[in-house]
Amino acid sequence: MVTGKPLNIMAVSGSLRADSSNTAILKYLQKAVPQHNFWIYDGLDKLPHFNPALDTDPSPVQVQDLRDLIADADGLIICTPEYAFGVPGSLKNMLDWTVSSGSLVNKPVALITASSVGENAHASLIKTLEVLTARVVDEGTLLIPFIRTKMNAANEITDTQTERDIQNVLTALLAEIV
Ligand SMILES: Cc1cc2nc3c(=O)[nH]c(=O)nc-3n(C[C@H](O)[C@H](O)[C@H](O)COP(=O)(O)O)c2cc1C
């Protein structure tokens, strides 16, 4: 993987399940780049429901924490399932909190959608990220269908092509930042 100065990478899992395959993918990538400061955001379920009336100065403390973490990040990697043909509500809620702050403007972002099918959430997220004027990385978006067939019961990736694909996504994100 890319070497050089340590980069700050913020990872966001769209699944809140302790046993999540999406979070497992992010943990795999975290281990792959020990030379970088790669953290997995754990505040998704603590954010208030987005309400423009709460989007004041100062903003709710969890929202300010989110915005500070994004500001510290050189780039983001989102890894998410699809629910009911759409983006998980908690992840969309997080993205809604970044609208007024412009936190994602020009921020390099990679996106992995790992789900049973996932194509609706994947397309919808790309559209949302574009509207937020995030810098969605070329070669940095990946749809992984049938994710459960590509991992074992211990949430280890068993499919070598998937391993390669997710590494390539992270490499593309790092290359965009450097
Ligand atoms: C309520 C619910 C709705 C779901 N809807 C979809 C769906 O519309 N499309 C899809 O591809 N998978 C759907 N799934 C399957 C999830 O994508 C799959 O369980 C995935 O592995 C969850 O990710 P995780 O392991 O990171 O939690 C749904 C799962 C749940 C629990």
UniProtKB/TrEMBL annotation:
Matches recorded under SUPFAM superfamilies: Flavoproteins
Pfam families to which the protein is assigned, alphabetical: FMN_red
A Gene Ontology cellular-component term: cytosol
GO molecular function: FMN binding; oxidoreductase activity
InterPro entries: Flavoprotein-like_sf, FMN_Rdtase-like_dom, NAD(P)H-dep_reductase
Chain ranges of the NADPH-dependent FMN reductase-like domain: 8-146
Protein name (database record): Flavoprotein
Species in which this protein is naturally found: Mucilaginibacter agri
